[in-house]
Amino acid sequence: MNVPLKYEGPKKIEELFDNRQFHSRLSVGVQGKRVMRVRPQFNVWSMCLAGLFIPDVGLNFDELSDLAETAGLTVGIGDNRVNGYGRFRGSIVEVK
Question: Quick one: 10 exposed, middle or buried, by C-beta within 10 A (0-12, 13-18, 19+)?
Answer without folding.
Answer: middle
